Amino acid sequence: MSQASTLREENPRAERLNIEAEALLRPLLVRKARGEALSPRDRLTIPAQEMPVQDAGARCKNMAEVALGYGEAQARLEAERCLGCKNAPCIAGCPVQVPIPRFIAEIQRGNFKAAVDIIKETNLLPAVCGRVCPQEKQCQAECTLGKSLKNADKAVAIGRLERFAADWERETGQVTLPPVKAGTGKKAAVVGSGPAGLTVAADLAREGHRVTIFEALHKPGGVMVYGIPEFRLPKAIVQAETEVLQKIGVRFETNFLVGRTRTLRQFLEEDGCGAVFIGAGAGLPKFLGCPGENLVGVFSANEYLTRSNLMKAYETEKAATPMFPSKIAAIIGGGNVAMDAARTALRLGAGEVHVIYRRTRQEMPARAEEVEHAAEEGVIFDFLRNPNKMTGDEKGRVTGMELQKFELGEPDRSGRRSPVPVPGSEYFFPCDTVIVALGNESNPLLTKTTADLHADGRGRILVDGKQKTSLERVYAGGDIVLGAATVILAMGEGRRAAAAMNEFLAGA
Fold first, then answer.
1. What phi, psi does 474 have (nearest 5°)?
2. Same CATH fold, 287-438 and 187-283+441-507?
3. Residue 508 confidence (pLDDT)
């Protein structure tokens, strides 16, 4: 049983939510057993199911998963809200085209294994996607129910149902391997073991090709391991997903830096690889470029989260990597990574954690749920602020920042109102830790060590509609192409690349 499941069973509110759901579900099942179909009007009256979570006061002191997952009655009741639309607009909103109404219909029937098998037709990482994908901006944004109720928050909780089905399969020991075709004898290399790389490897292996994933770090999983905190995505889940790939024949080579340990051309010309996929991610952090960013105590969110997530620096008695203790931590940025860094700083013992963002909450790109969780845990939001410079003491340690106040002007190209500095509004903000969470750019190693591999001015590898690069037999996708994006968008690019690679290898 997972830690989240154990916590759910011990959580009074989680138990009460499931009991309440069971009371509402029972008469619906009786009606269906009599052959009475639920009308759309009936489904509109079923209440949306709340996700049980750890109490805010407790969870900000531990690394256990915050969201505890639906109980069985909650999952089935939430599934009954689905209208089963014939045109299935939710599928169009999913980057990997999960057959959403089909898997939800199986949850309605209580056939949880059938539900997860349907999800896995197009997505081999359902436990991951159910936790970290921004469904509210993708599949759930297209949900007919949410539109009928004129409230996107009332859409069917597709992601939570996906998580439930995947967790049920794993926790009941009913994980089955995807079918694999007879071996073709053809080899493929995948650079990077993040969501794009894992997706490509799965789709190639299922076609019978010999696939090896080359990972620069010492554990597979990419951003899912080093970037997303344990309290949002337990690493045991990522490990379980990678083990499925190993069981269908995918090999993992860790501590292998492509471009240094071996080059792309060596894969193609010396190692007998018929095709190569680049899914190396976007691991080069952006900084403000203001004075004082080289002071001790100023981190990129990448480094800060990697120390905590991958190297488990929060286990202070066991971890070999040090973690900077904080009294007042300031996080610069307003995206999901900023929320991850802020909530991690709390769990690492910071007395105060501030998020410094130059717009308002309405313009924040972070998921609303993550912002709400951060606020519940005690993170302080300082909106319409941005640093001009950072100051330090005689030992080179950061002591604070000069912040500038802003107001919102006209919308920019993204549709968000542009921040405009307020003259004369500068003031000093004391802090001993600054975490810069302004996004990442593509690591230039591969483009610098591979002649004729074309990239744009920001280092993102250029691809065509089938994810093919400027080099023959070399494909790319995920953050190395998109810039920092979401897990599911990376997986969508991986699926397109794998389809093109399988087509090429079949004719080679």
1. -120, 125
2. yes
3. 74
Give residue-wise pLDDT tens across range 45-71: 999 999 999 999 999 999 999 999 999
Residue 240 and residue 230: Cα distance in Å, rounded? 14
112-54-12-44 Cα dihedral, nearest 10 degrees: -50
Q: Where are the domains of the chain?
A: 3-171, 187-283+441-507, 287-438
CA atoms of 371 and 339, how far apart (whole Å)? 7
Spans of the chain, pLDDT less than 50: none
The top-level CATH class assigned to 287-438 is: alpha beta
Tally helices (H) and strands (E) across the chain: 21, 16
Residue 500 amino acid letter? A
Class of domain 3-171: mainly alpha
φ and ψ of 411, to 5 deg: -65, 145
Yes or no: say if 445 and 451 are a contact pair by the CB < 8 Å rule: no
Place of tokens 């995920």: 478
Q: Tell whether pTM > 0.90.
A: yes
Provide DSSP, 493-504: HHHHHHHHHHHH
The CATH superfamily label for domain 187-283+441-507 reads: FAD/NAD(P)-binding domain (3.50.50.60)
Q: Which pLDDT value is given to residue 284? A: 86
Token pair of 198, please?
């894992």
- SS3 of 411, please? strand
**Residue 1 confidence (pLDDT):** 64
